[in-house]
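Example record

One chain of 129 residues, shown exactly as stored in the release files.
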Amino acid sequence: MTVYKASHIVPIRSGKDERSRVERNDEWVRVERTSAFKELMRKKKAFILPAMIFFFVFYFTLPFLTAFTTVLNATAFGPISWAYVYAFAQFVMTWGLAYAYIGQANKWDDLVDDARREAAQGSAEGSRA
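Predicted structure tokens for this chain:
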């Protein structure tokens, strides 16, 4: 599926290929009001906010510790100090967070499909009334 087709959340039955800005805005409002979309946003916030806080704390701890303390000056092994180990750990942390996000995002795909379905059903019911 192309990005263009995937971005059309609710199928239009009128046969028009081009959509006006108003139609897309109406689609977005219908999707936004579905219970599945609200659940999706709640789950995304529950994951992203703690992950973002963890990332910033972990990231800014290195410059703080190197600038204001001597904790990381000790030798970890060979000529490598704990500052280098901590700096390398930031790469591992970034990959770990990306991996965790991908795992969570795959779980959210069902909610996205449910939101599309609910929005499409809502528009079909609205057009009948």
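Notes: Residues 10 and 27 are 7 Å apart (CA to CA).
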